[in-house]
Structures are given as structure tokens and as C-alpha cells.
Design brief:
heterodimer, A: alpha+beta, Uridine Diphospho-n-acetylenolpyruvylglucosamine Reductase, domain 2, Enolase-like, domain 1, B: alpha+beta, Aldehyde Oxidoreductase, domain 4, Aldehyde Oxidoreductase, domain 3, 3 domains, 5-stranded mixed β-sheet, 25 strands, 22% strand, globular
């Protein structure tokens, strides 16, 4: 049997209380928000915090709310909450798809969006969609507030800019411009309970249904230390009329916008080829969505 | 003369359904006792090394530690699965042979202390070269993993039936293909666990096992306690699939520490330890050469196989035989040659897993037959139909197909899947494939040479006849044997299903070799049926005296005594019964004489009515060396058609549908037969597409979790069309034979043949991961 090591456990009721606890900047502290990653790693012995601060009982950080053009997702909102939200399904279906590809129904009931971001795993399911959608992450300490974009949040596997005294409180998304479409495809071995071999999220915005591409984002996952934007591929799309040839060209460029390694889930060469395959598909699906109704409001 | 049955051939719910659905069912890891200690193992961190010194002094000083045992305390009695290859000791005395090899055990007041103490034991090693695959283990000058086995060949088998080389000369097509699967894990949900309690000379062990009998014998032999003073009890078990069919180290270590401390000791494997203990499917490297004539007649097969055995023999001495012998059917094949080599390597020992020894061979052979059918321009179903055996045929290696619904299975899956409309007409990326297979219905011989009965059963009637208690050592491990045996008892005795209460999985209840080789329904079923008939005979004997009706003119059916010639006057029996139950609220008795009334009478005349049954197979075929592995009283067979979609851009395979027909002789419980078929297909799908135990260069399993070792999820399994074929096996109880393992045989090759149909690519290496298939497609296009 695997056992949890000993640790102190704090369960603050309010955000100020939680931030107050963290303000002592103890480096042996871990924040828990779902625990689908942390508890497993503690049992395996790969992390050994002396203190755990749980966000479970905090008021006001779970749920999805909409104010005009902004949709705010509390950081303790679970993947299951996101997957069953009408607001998300209508306005950001790509995020719903990403949430539904995370783990299994049981894991989705526990895993939170804040946790999925804070653990900074290179193959995490929600960050690629959030980057593609231009999400903003709100961070708070006892005395400060800041908002960052996920593109700069991640530093490397398990590493981010999140301070020891800092908590992710909210992820916000602005509704998308007209003629925008997006898609997320995750390639795993099984149909569920998978960590991606490769995943790609793409989003494009057209000038008009038969116009040029005005904005594009392609996010590659599990092929670099963090989810990365395929910048040269994005650049090749801007100002161009969408076509299969264009998407194939962008996808080929995307292969060099990443640095896959060979590991237990797949080889580097295969991953590079899959970056191309999934980039083409996500772009094609995004385009189809963009020149159709687009996403609802 | 189709008989009407009341309980068998039905869909009665499982007797353990409620306990399992509510969580009431208690498994070995749920058990606790007053004063119980918790054990932990110290296992080798090196794949191959000499042990120079073991220092337990720091561990001993830890507060709460009650016992520490090493080879010094446990002794070095050699044990294993087959007496022909006893090559294990409880703990390693001077050498470790794989990462995970057991060196010491600790018993302490709680599991955390036990684990901490184990980690404080210092072992001084002198590393030896690690031989992590077949090639390095067989290379010139390789260090010997076991000194008595040159070349690290732990076992080899050479058999020839007919004359293969001569037969090839008359063939129009002779082709050779190589095939390799990967080491599997059993993937059962419940890791092994046990509690051992030694008191006043008696040892009782509750364990998650497939065979209380084999565990009892091994404990007795290794620990030196008479068999009669060792009792092994199997609580509810969460799956076994083979790896739990023999004694394990925690059963031995917990027993030893209980003997030394006088307190119960509990030990539980972590999931990682399940992978390190292994005893699951080997990696097989098959080279098959098959010869056929232009008209499609299969003439000869040459099979060479190397098995990566791991560090010890476990069930491997049987596995190596099965890897050859299970290709003798279901096709008429006059010439077959087999050369098998099981190689010791510095990895966890492999053993038995569902479809023991035959699964990779079957996958290789059925894919090769598909290739040959295409070369001949024959439809793969027609090609198989042309060659299949039928009831009464005997294979070249002397397996008697006393019943064989192979044609019925093939016809059923062809028609049930729409094969004829689909084969050759599906678009690129969609494919359909077919395969066949067969399997033993119980090993013909125990794993140790013995004249023992394979199964015994006892039925004791309650004094009012209202209940029949069935006692058996058969192992319900989730496959449903408790339900099946209860049904057989009820039917044979002639009472309602609900009147039978089963007590199983306990060496105090009799002898049963356990749940492996698909033997419980046929073998334990025979014993139970005989016990029920014994009880019935005794009741009818008393009734015969009382009513003056010849015993053979009476029977019991559905709780009522049946008279062959007219109903005698039984009013005296009835009124005596009524007098004994004055004041009881009785539902009105039916017109006929009830079993209860007759059974009550029998008790009053004779005391407790107890019936016994015992079974062992009759004379089986084969006088050649190795004939004991593969000969069986009966053989189940099956055919499957699988449809797949292949994503040509990623190589990812989705199994869209599976149609499976299995000849189980006679379905005691139709729902359970279907469950076994579905479970087999799921396991086969996992082995075909996902499953592979992986090692790093230091011999350590790197995916020892169900996160990175991928068994199929429910979303990976399509709905299965299950078709039950009943060929009425003369050697089976009510005509029943196996379904638990044979159903996996066609799954992998049917998937492989469907992948070929979809892509034009033949995959000779498992698992067919998306990467492997994508690469193969890409290379073919080049």
C-alpha cells in the first residue's frame, strides 16, 4: 500500500484567511485544489510538503458567471462544472471539449481549473484551450492583485510564475469576435484516462465568412516543456484566405515550433508528425466553425 | 430428448450481486483482527546481484517493530508451481534475480512503521550483469541466473507429430512469419492481500487467491506444518486471471511472522508490487511456418517459440507447452512440429494469464492464415470452414474434440456480423477481420503429479429440508462459480435455486484445484452434481422404504417428488410433517409430495443427510512427453468478427464492433457466459492495442500503475454481439464446458486482420499503438 506522508493541514474559510496563511512564504507549503495530481505525487513520494492549504471551503471561487462580454470562471470550478456549463458550451465550446478530455468522469468531478493551471504539467488539458481563447488568470496575494495571460504563466514542467504566497482566484475570458472558430484535439492511447501524446488547440478569426484570416492562434501541447504557441504557423495564416493548402503549410511550420522528446508515451518523430496532423485538423474544424454560425453569444 | 430445466440454462442473478453492489462484500484487505500486525517487504532494488550482507539492526530498533525475517529465519526450502521446477525460496539467501525479488519482511504495529522499518534494512550487494531480454540471456558467456540451467534455458520442449518437413514438400504455399507480443500484467482490480493467523499449531490464512488448495500445499511444504493444520480461506476476490493461481511471498511471509509472533499478520501489495510480482502473460516470440495446398487445405505447421520467462519458473513450465500444443486445433492439421525455449531473464517471473500460453500463438497463427487466405484468393471464413474440425475429431497431438461447435460458431459470426456484405467492400480506414480459437476446459492433470481428485463437493441438508448447504473449495474470483455451482446443485437435487446456500473457497470444505485453466464449471460442477445426486438418492431411498415405491421410479424436480407410475398414498408422510409444524404459519402445501416433506422424513430416519461428490478426469489421450499439458476432458471453441476504424493520419485504432460466438457446450447461466465472453474480448482488445509492461535499463518497471499501463476503459469497448453455441459436451455436467478463457483466443487476431483490411498493413508486433501503426503505414507508403 502507498501512504501519505505526514503533513499539517489548513482549511481556511475565506480567501483573506487563505492568503494570510500563505503570506509566511513557507517553501514547504502546497496549495491543494482537487488533489488529483498532488495526492498521487505525495503517495509516490515525489513531493513531500510539510503543510497543505486546502481551498475546498473557500467561498466565491467556484462557479461560472457572465457579466456582459466577460465570462469569469472561479479557480475552484471543476472540469465537470465546465463541461456541463451552458455558458461555456455556447460561448467557448473548445473549452468544454478540453474539459471533457481530461481524465475520467471521476477525476473531472475533482480536478479544478485552477489546479490544472497551477500544476503546470506540459500535457495539461485546459491550458491549450485557454491560451487559444486569450484567457486571463487572476492572481492574488495578501496585498497584491495581478492578472496575467497563460502564455507567460508557465515556465517549465511543474514550474510557473505563481508565487508561494499567491493563489489563482479566477480565469476570465472575453467573448470571441464574430467569425471565430476553435478546436482542441487530444491524441491519447485510450478513449479516456489519458495524458496526451500530443494535443493541439487552434482558433481562427475571419474578417468575414469568405474573408481572410484576421487572427489565429495555434497551441501545441505535450511537445515542449510547456504548452507553446506555434508562432511561425500562426504568422503564415494571418491575412491569408483559408484553404487546405494554407493549413497544411501552417501545420508543417508548426512541426518546428515545438521540441518534442521521446518518452513512455511516444517518440519524438511521431509527435512531430502528429503536431502536423492535429494542426491541420484543428484548423479545418476551427474554420468550419468560424464561417458557419460562429460560436453563440 | 430435450430435457426441461428449472435452474440451469437460465439467467438467474448472481448470488454475490447484492454484496458486491452494496459494498458489503469484504475482500482480504478489508479484514482486521484484534492484535493484528502489519507486514511489509524489503525487495531488491537491483535486477541481479549477490547479497553480501543484510543488516537489520536499525530496523529492529524502530519502535513498534515486532518481527523481522530473512532467509535466515525462513529457511531455504525451494518451492514453485511445478515440482519439476521448484526454483524459489521465501527470501533470497545469497542472490537477487530481479528488481522486486524479496529479501526480508517486517511485522509491526501499523503499516507505516512496517514500511519504514523495511526501508531501514541495509543490504550490501555485489552487482551482477543484468540480462533483461532473451538475446542477452542466451548470448555466449552470459552469466547464469540459475546455476543449473546452462544458456539460461529454464525449460525446452521439442515435439513433432507427423512429418512436417516431408509435408511441406507437397504444399503449394509455405510461408514463415514472425510475431511478438509484450509482457502483460493481469490488471485485476484487487491487489493481492492476506491475513495469516497462527494459533495452537493451526495456521489459518485468508488470501486473495485463485486456488486455496495450491496455497495450502505450498504453505504446508515450505513452513513444515501438516496439511491438516493449514487452512486457507478465500474471501471475496477482485479478479485473478492467472497470476493468483499459486502461493505468493506475502502468504508465506505473513504466515511465518504470525508463527513467530503469535499474532495475526496482514500484508497487502501495492499496485507497484503487483507489477513486480507479475506471474502474468509472458512475452512470446513465435516463428511460424505453415504449409497449405492450392485448394486451401492446411497441411503442416512448424512453430518455434522463445518465451521471456523472467527470473523464476512459476507456471512457465506449463506455459511453454501450451504455446505449442494449443495450435493443434480447431483445424485439421496432420503435421505439427514445435520447439519451445523458456529463457530466464532478470525480470519479474511470468506465469499464467487468461488463455494460458496460447494467446500470442493463436494471434500469430490466425493472422498468418488470413495472409494465406488472401494469397489463395479465398474468403477467410470459407478458408477456415474448409479446414475446421468437428465433434469427434482428434488432433494430431491427441486432443479429443468430444464436442466442437466450430462450424456453428463461424456460421454465427459470419451471419451475425454481416461479413458477406462487408468483407472487401469497406472504405479505406475501415476494416473487418475474423479469427477462431479453442481452449481446454480444465487441465487434465494437477500441477503436481498426483492421483488426487480435482474437485470434491459436499451437500448437507438442513433438518427440515428447507435448505441445502453446498460446501466446496472452488474459488469464486468474480467469474461466477458460486452462482454456477449453486445452479447445478439446485437442478441436480431438484430444488429451487434460492434453497441452495453455497460455502466456497475454503480448504476445510474439500479439495478443489481452484479457478484456473477454465475448470470450475466442468470439474467442480461434476463434483457438485454428484453430491446433489447422492443427497437425492438418500432421500429417495428413505421415501422408497416408506411408500414402498422403487427408488428408481421416483425423482425430484422443482421441489416436488415425481412418481413414474401413478401417485402412491403419501398422506402418512404429510400428516406427520404437519404434526411437527403445528402452529407454524404454512403456505398451503401443493398437491404433490414436496421435497421438504421427504427430506424431513429422511432426517428423522437417518440423521443429517450429507451427500458427497468427487471428480477427476477419466483417461485422456497422449502418451508423448508433455501430453499432460493441453489434454482436457473437453474443449471450448469460438469465432469472432471484429470491425475497426483506423485513423490513417494518426494510426489510432478504434474497435467499432465485435461479434463473438462461443461454444460453451451448455450455458449453465446465460448472462454469465456472455459476461465471460465480454470480459475476454476486453482483455484481448487491451493486449492488442494498449498493454505492455515496460522496463528501464536497470530492470525496473516504469509503468507500474493503471495510469501508464493501459487496460481498456468502457469507452474503448464497443458493444459486443454475443452468440452462445451449445454443442452438448458429453464429458461436462449438463453438457457444459469452458468459456472463461477460450473466448479471448480469436480477439487479437480478429483485430489484426481487421486492421489489415482497413490499412493494407500487417502488424507482427503488439500492442498496435497508434505510433506503431502510423509508422508501419508510413513505411509502406515509402
Amino acid at each position: 500500500m502507498l501512504f501519505l506522508p505526514r503533513f499539517d493541514y489548513e482549511e481556511p474559510r475565506t480567501l483573506p484567511e487563505a492568503l494570510d496563511i500563505l503570506s509566511d512564504l513557507r517553501s514547504d507549503t502546497k496549495v491543494i485544489a482537487g488533489g488529483t495530481d498532488l495526492i498521487v505525487n505525495m503517495k509516490k513520494g515525489s513531493v513531500d510538503p510539510a503543510r497543505i492549504v486546502s481551498l475546498k471551503r473557500l467561498k466565491g471561487i467556484r462557479g461560472i458567471t457572465r457579466k456582459k462580454e466577460i465570462v469569469a470562471i472561479g479557480s475552484y470550478t471543476t472540469a465537470a462544472d465546465i463541461a456541463r456549463s451552458d455558458v461555456i458550451a455556447r460561448s467557448f465550446p473548445v473549452l468544454r471539449k478540453a474539459a471533457l478530455s481530461l481524465g475520467s468522469p471521476l477525476i473531472r468531478n475533482r480536478a479544478t481549473i485552477g489546479g490544472n493551471i497551477a500544476t503546470a504539467r506540459p500535457a495539461a488539458d485546459l491550458p491549450p484551450a485557454l491560451i487559444a481563447l486569450g484567457a486571463r488568470i487572476k492572481l492574488r496575494t495578501k496585498g497584491t492583485n495581478r492578472t496575467v495571460i497563460p502564455d507567460v504563466f508557465f515556465i517549465g514542467p511543474g514550474r510557473s510564475i505563481l508565487g508561494k504566497d499567491e493563489i489563482i482566484t479566477e480565469i476570465s475570458l472575453s467573448t470571441l469576435p464574430p467569425f471565430t472558430g476553435a478546436d482542441y484535439i487530444k491524441l491519447g492511447h485510450r478513449a479516456a484516462l489519458e495524458i496526451a501524446i500530443v494535443a493541439v488547440a487552434s482558433r481562427i478569426t475571419l474578417d468575414s465568412p469568405d474573408g481572410v484570416i484576421r487572427d489565429a492562434r495555434i497551441v501545441l501541447s505535450a511537445v515542449a516543456p510547456t504548452a507553446v504557441r506555434a508562432l511561425s504557423a500562426e504568422g503564415a495564416l494571418l491575412g491569408e484566405y483559408p484553404s487546405d493548402e494554407l493549413f497544411a503549410k501552417a501545420a508543417s511550420l508548426a512541426m518546428n515550433d515545438c521540441s518534442p522528446v521521446s518518452d513512455i508515451r511516444g517518440g519524438a518523430d511521431y509527435r512531430r508528425d502528429m503536431v502536423r496532423a492535429l494542426t491541420i485538423r484543428t484548423l479545418a474544424n476551427a474554420y468550419r466553425e468560424a464561417c458557419g454560425q460562429g460560436v453563440g453569444l | 430428448m430435450k430435457k426441461t430445466y428449472h435452474t440451469v440454462n437460465s439467467r438467474v442473478p448472481r448470488v454475490d450481486a447484492r454484496a458486491k453492489a452494496t459494498g458489503e462484500a469484504r475482500y482480504a484487505a478489508d479484514l482486521a483482527m484484534p492484535g493484528m500486525l502489519y507486514g511489509a517487504l524489503l525487495q531488491s532494488s537491483l535486477p541481479h546481484a549477490r547479497i553480501l550482507n543484510i543488516d537489520v539492526s536499525r530496523a529492529k530498533m524502530l519502535s513498534g517493530v515486532k518481527d523481522i525475517v530473512t532467509a535466515k529465519e525462513a529457511g531455504t526450502v525451494k518451492y514453485g508451481v511445478s515440482p519439476a521446477r521448484y526454483d524459489e525460496t521465501v527470501f533470497c539467501a545469497d542472490r537477487v534475480r530481479y528488481v522486486g525479488d524479496e529479501i526480508a519482511a517486517v511485522a509491526a504495529r501499523d503499516p507505516e512503521t512496517a514500511q519504514e522499518a523495511a526501508s531501514l534494512i541495509r543490504v550490501e550487494y555485489e552487482p551482477l550483469p543484468a540480462l533483461l531480454d532473451i538475446d542477452s540471456a542466451m548470448s555466449d558467456g552470459a552469466v547464469l541466473i540459475h546455476d543449473d540451467f546452462p544458456g539460461n534455458i529454464g525449460a525446452e520442449v521439442h515435439q513433432e507429430f507427423g512429418d512436417v518437413e516431408e509435408a511441406f514438400k507437397g504444399c503449394d504455399i509455405v510461408r514463415t512469419d514472425r510475431f511478438v507480443n509484450k509482457r502483460q500484467d493481469g490488471g485485476f482490480l484487487e491487489p493481492q492481500a492476506c491475513v495469516a493467523q497462527y494459533a495452537e499449531g493451526h495456521l489459518t490464512v485468508w488470501s486473495s487467491t485463485q486456488s486455496v488448495h495450491y496455497v495450502q500445499r505450498s504453505l504446508s511444504m515450505v513452513l513444515g506444518i501438516p496439511i491438516g493444520k493449514v487452512r486457507v480461506i478465500k474471501p471475496y476476490v477482485g479478479g485473478g486471471f492467472g497470476p493468483k493461481a499459486a502461493v505468493n511471498t506475502i502468504e508465506l511471509a505473513a504466515s511465518l511472522m504470525s508463527m513467530r509472533t503469535g499474532r495475526p499478520v496482514k500484508m497487502v501489495f501495492s499496485r507497484e508490487q503487483v507489477f513486480m510480482h507479475s506471474r502474468a502473460r509472458h512475452q512470446f516470440v513465435h516463428e511460424l511456418t505453415t504449409g497449405v495446398k492450392k485448394d486451401g487445405t492446411i497441411v503442416a505447421l512448424k512453430n518455434t517459440c522463445h518465451l521471456d520467462g523472467g527470473a523464476y519458473s512459476s507456471f512457465g513450465i506449463a506455459t511453454i507447452y501450451y504455446a505449442g500444443s494449443l495450435l493443434g486445433a480447431p483445424y485439421k492439421l496432420a503435421n505439427m512440429k514445435y520447439d519451445g525455449y523458456r529463457i530466464y531473464t532478470n525480470k519479474p517471473a511470468c506465469g499464467a494469464q487468461r488463455g494460458h500460453g496460447g494467446v500470442a500463438a493463436r494471434a500469430a497463427f490466425e493472422q498468418q492464415l488470413d495472409i494465406i487466405a488472401h494469397e489463395l484468393g479465398m474468403d477467410p471464413v470459407e478458408f477456415r470452414l474448409k479446414n475446421i474440425m468437428k465433434t469427434g475429431d482428434v488432433t494430431c497431438n491427441d486432443f479429443n474434440m468430444s464436442s466442437l461447435g466450430m462450424k456453428e460458431c463461424l456460421d454465427a459470426v459470419r451471419d451475425g456480423s454481416g461479413w458477406t456484405e462487408k468483407k472487401g467492400k469497406l472504405p479505406k480506414g475501415k476494416g473487418i477481420g475474423v479469427a477462431c480459437g479453442f481452449f481446454v476446459s480444465g487441465a487434465g492433470y494437477p500441477i503436481y503429479r498426483s492421483e488426487t481428485f480435482h474437485s470434491t463437493a459436499t451437500i448437507r441438508l438442513s433438518e427440515d429440508g428447507g435448505g441445502a448447504n453446498l460446501y466446496t473449495a472452488a474459488a469464486e474470483i468474480g467469474q461466477g462459480s458460486d452462482t454456477i455451482l449453486s445452479q447445478i446443485a439446485a437442478e441436480a437435487l431438484g430444488v429451487a435455486f434460492g434453497d441452495v446456500k453455497i460455502y466456497s473457497g475454503d480448504t476445510d470444505f474439500g479439495i478443489d484445484l481452484g479457478a484456473y485453466s477454465s475448470r470450475q464449471t466442468l470439474m467442480s460442477g461434476h463434483a457438485v452434481k454428484a453430491a446433489a445426486e447422492d443427497v437425492k438418492r438418500q432421500v429417495l431411498e428413505v421415501l422408497s422404504d416408506e411408500l414402498n415405491v422403487p427408488r428408481d421410479d421416483m425423482d425430484i424436480e422443482n421441489g416436488i417428488v415425481i412418481f413414474a407410475t401413478g401417485r402412491p398414498d403419501f398422506s402418512a408422510v404429510r400428516s406427520a410433517y404437519a404434526k411437527e409444524h403445528r402452529g407454524w404459519v404454512q403456505s398451503s402445501l401443493p398437491e404433490g409430495l414436496t421435497f421438504k416433506e421427504a427430506a424431513r422424513l429422511a432426517f428423522l430416519k437417518r440423521g443429517v443427510i450429507v451427500g458427497n461428490g468427487a471428480y477427476k478426469p477419466g483417461e485422456l489421450g497422449g502418451k508423448y512427453k508433455g501430453a499432460a499439458v493441453g489434454t482436457s476432458p473437453a474443449y471450448g471453441c469460438s469465432a469472432q468478427v471484429v470491425e475497426v476504424s483506423v485513423d490513417m493520419g494518426t494510426g489510432r485504432v478504434t474497435v467499432d464492433s465485435m461479434t463473438d460466438a462461443h461454444d460453451c457446450g451448455f450455458a449453465i447461466n446465460r448472462t454469465n457466459v456472455e459476461g465471460q465472453m465480454q470480459g475476454s474480448l476486453s482483455m484481448g482488445l487491451g493486449e492488442a492495442l494498449f498493454e505492455e509492461v515496460k522496463f528501464d535499463g536497470g530492470g525496473r518497471v516504469i509503468n507500474a500503475s493503471l495510469g501508464e499501463y493501459r487496460i481498456p476503459t468502457s469507452l474503448d469497448m464497443p458493444n459486443v454481439r454475443t452468440i452462445i453455441i451449445e454443442s452438448n459436451e458429453p464429458n461436462g455436467p449438463f453438457g457444459a464446458k469452458e468459456v472463461g478463457e477460450g473466448a479471448i483466443m480469436p480477439t487479437i487476431p480478429a483485430i489484426l486482420n481487421a486492421i489489415y483490411d482497413a490499412t493494407g498493413v500487417r502488424m507482427n508486433e503488439l500492442p498496435v499503438t497508434s505510433e506503431r501503426l502510423y509508422t508501419a503505414i508510413k513505411n509502406k507508403v515509402k
